[in-house]
Amino acid sequence: MTNILLTLFVIAIFIGLLFGLYKMQTKHVKFSKRVFSALGIGIVFGLILQLAFGNDHAVTTKVVEWTSIVGDGYVAFLQMLVMPLIFISIVGAFTKLDTSKNLGKISFNVLFVLIGTTAIAALIGIASVFIFKLDGATFTKGAQETARIAEIAQRQNMVKDLTIPQQIVDFIPRNIFADLAGTRSTSTIAVVIFSAFTGLAYLGIKRKKEKEAEFFLKIIQSLDAIIMRIVTLVLRLTPYGILALIMKVAAISDLNAILNLGKFVLASYVALITMFIVHLIILIFNKVNPKVYLQKAFPVLSFAFTSRSSAGALPLNIETQRKALGVEDAIANFAASFGLSIGQNGCAGIYPAMLAAIVAPTVGIDVHSIGYIAMIVAVVSVSSFGVAGVGGGATFASLIVLGSLNLPVEIVGLVISVEPLIDMGRTALNVNDSMLAGVVTSRRMGSLDDNILNNLEAVVDSQ
């Protein structure tokens, strides 16, 4: 009875915090300030809950179960939009192109940034392993890790015989309706490919059948307006969703496990932060003020951090590029959509490279060899295609990389207890890389709107 009363009391406080965020909205407090406030309040509230009851106490578990309606529900709403948004965004991007010549330039620049930064990320991940002297032989195995390793072994069986050429073929959509439903791990990139074919078909009939092309354009423009209106409605829930999501992380994280694997967590975040700094340096070379960029990118990065879902961040990602960073519509759509499945710096770059460098010495491989480091970077870069932009994508990427290098996959299961904590930083880096690709490509194409970029009032707002 006491636990029930305490649970109700804590939930009542949570509802009160949600109401406080609503009052901030009615007073027209800036979107970014509401997001930042939600992030801070959620961390404090979650830590108080853990310190008061413990991360596995009945009260904590029950409170998190109920508050997850807000957090997980918000993520679900965003994920609901992902496939329609990818399709409409990419097809819409084609309708905005004057000629198909621009398509090649845009695609090349976006992919160059995504894949190039993934290779750099892999090198930084390996360097972090060397600096912190991480040794795979010292990683311990408990009950949770044992269960995870068994699960990993099953997943490994699904990809161990899958060669890189077969992986590439698997990207091709065989049943677009199944891929629109997200039934495969490669569904996202399959929808991207189908959307690109649809866009190319539009450009083809535009020259020969103007009437039909004009009718199709009106349909796409109408659908785009509807989808973006739904995006606006969902984004209004962002502060509430972030409050619930970060509160859950702070309340149920296993602090002992974090301490036990603290060296690995620290090494991971040093690599992630270093790569983030590389992103900012690239922005400087492209005449973009890092401070202004961070101010405008904060809402989408904070959501990616708390939700651990690159796909869920897609709507806010596109809106941030277009309305806050001055990226051309077509380029923003391409960069955000491609970034979901290609060249994720955190999940498909740093993480699998670190695991490969950690575990290689346990099977007698000299990981300090320049040739072997180059091999890891090459395999990571190629394998970065088709990584799903949702929680678990890093595991999939790691299995492919470790399998391709003939390394044991048990290391993936040994770090399960700190996986959620690291995944938060990885996801934020993934999303930032897709925005970086949009900004850099738009700058190279000469279409970056500096008036929007440098105007601090030009931000994404859900009012």
TrEMBL record:
It comes from the Bacteria. The chain crosses the membrane at residues 6-23, 35-53, 73-94, 106-132, 187-205, 226-246, 266-285, 370-390, 396-416. One of its GO terms (molecular function) is L-cystine transmembrane transporter activity. GO terms for cellular component: plasma membrane. It is a multi-pass membrane protein. The keyword Transport applies. It is found in: Membrane. Pfam families: SDF. Keywords: Amino-acid transport, Membrane, Transmembrane, Transmembrane helix, Transport. InterPro entries: Na-dicarboxylate_symporter, Na:dicarbo_symporter_sf. Belongs to the dicarboxylate/amino acid:cation symporter (DAACS) (TC 2.A.23) family. This is L-cystine uptake protein TcyP. It comes from Vagococcus silagei.
